[in-house]
Amino acid sequence: MDTTALSRGERRAVRAALADLDVRERGAFGRLDGHVGLAAATYPERDPLELDRGVPVRRSGKSRGFVSGGLDLTLLYGPITIVTHPYFDTRLKYDPDYEGKKDRIIAGRNAEAYVRAVWRYGEVFFGSVDRNWGPPAAQGLLVSPAPYGYDHFAVTIGTPSFHIEGLLTQLDDLNDTSGTPNHRYFVAHRLVIRPPGRTTLVLWEGNVLAGPARQLEPWYANIFTLGLLQQYDQNSRTNSLLGFDLQTRVAGVTAFGSFLLDDIQIDKKTAADSEPPSYGFTLGAQGGVGRAGWSAFYTRVVNLTYRTPSPPEAVMRSGVGLGRNFSDYDQLIVRGSWYAAPGVLLSPEATLLRQGAGDFRLPYPPVTAYDTTPTFLAGVVQRTLRLAAAAELARSRYSVSAEAGVHFVRNAGHVTGASESRFVGRIAVTYRLRRESVLP
Q1: Binning pLDDT at 50, 70 and 90, where does residue 70 land?
Q2: Which of 29, 42, 66, 376 sits 20 to 30 Å CA-CA off 300?
Q3: Residues paired with 308 in a beta bridge
Q4: Cα dihedral sign for 33, 21, 296, 111?
Q5: What pTM was computed for the model?
Q6: CA gap 142, 207 in Å, rounded
Q7: What pLDDT digit, counting tens, does each position of 383-426 carry?
Q8: Which residue, 150, 218, 149, 176, is CA-closest to 314?
Q9: Could you give the C-alpha distances from 341 to 8, 30, 199, 286, 392, in angstroms and in order?
């Protein structure tokens, strides 16, 4: 985490968290954290702005209470870290982004489960953990925590100022247009460059490989080459996505931007060359004064981004986007934070969201429809204004958090003239305990 981009109050909270995680023993060490919690909410999704969006459409349903609990075990053996964090949460039964078993009283999963080995010039990782390749204030356009954490292999080689990272995993099978199941794989890599100063540049690429009985070819697993080039060199097929992230700090303000290029047509010779472009981008800034912090960003993902004429090449896992979980939308968010007292954080938010009728889970339009397919905001555009505030009280043994907001929706359900106002809220109480010891 780059704490230079945080306010003074947020840095205090980070320092408190780091102190809580500090390992004060040398040699083999183990820590066990337990937690139980109660929550009540008007929605089951992790993000209330998922409501009334997607295919199928996410409806708010009724307000519910939830029970959760889990154990988080961390084992440290010098440069090797082993983590496993199984937990249960009845909220998962109602979350459309969760694809696990939902027909029992409770539902559960592993939040993190991995082994990680670190040395001076690199890192090797295998397991599941949430990742975000992009600015901290927004979800990454290629890799983000939108899907629940999935097992993957990852490697980092280089120094903090100049290194390359790679990630590869197998995705769920999907049928192609003929109904034949396709094996699918996701490979992503990025080059991180931090020259002297306050600027960071990240260049990245992702590839979704799919085909009946297809295996992960070694030339795509090679993170030191471009999958886009291998596609032509090896005469094979992949859905390649290219992009970059840029962040710089000027006079106490951190400015950031991301750009994703999914597809663009250069030739204009046939009807197929009139295919609308596919891209996404984010522009924003964040800063802080004293105990207060702020962030603001605008992001856009156009209609056909994350999908191709071949359905198995869609950039998703179990129906959830690997980067963003929606397409054909733009969003303007302004957030604040105030460290009101030790352990007390207040966070107001205002969001304006426009959602078109496009979605990467829908079939790709035929060539004959390219000329009439909008690049951005297809069909009747649903507009949502969200005004909300959140508060959190954190203590060593327990935490209490609450969030309340109002959504003002125009053209609800993509129906012209339909409008509604909806209260959305959540409150949660969590109790924690810890045991730690040197291992024999």
Answers
A1: very high
A2: 42
A3: none
A4: negative
A5: 0.89
A6: 10
A7: 999 999 999 999 999 999 999 999 999 999 999 999 999 999 99
A8: 176
A9: 12, 32, 32, 22, 11
Residue identified by tokens 């890799």 is 143
> Would you state the structure tokens that stand for residue 133, as one six-digit string?
């390749």
Pairing between β-strand 181-193 and β-strand 316-317 as defined by DSSP bridges: unpaired
HEC letters along 154-168: EEEEEECCEEEEEEE
Nearest-5° Cα angle at 171, 142 to 192: 30
Cβ-based burial of 373 (10 A; exposed 0-12, middle 13-18, buried ≥19) = middle
The one-character DSSP state at 48 is G
Query: In this structure, which topology does domain 3-438 adopt according to CATH?
Result: Porin (2.40.160)
Which residue, chain included where needed, has tokens 């999914």? 262
Q: pLDDT, tens digit, for every residue of 329-372? A: 999 999 999 999 999 999 999 999 999 999 999 999 999 999 89
Contact yes or no for 300/309 (Cβ under 8 A): no
HSE-CB for 345 with a 13 A CA cutoff: 23
Residue type, 364: Y
Cα–Cα distance for residue pair 156/134, rounded to 1 Å: 16
Chain center to CA of 110: 17
Joined together, the tokens standing for residue 314 give 């869609």
Q: 283 forms bridges with which residues in the sheet?
A: 257, 298
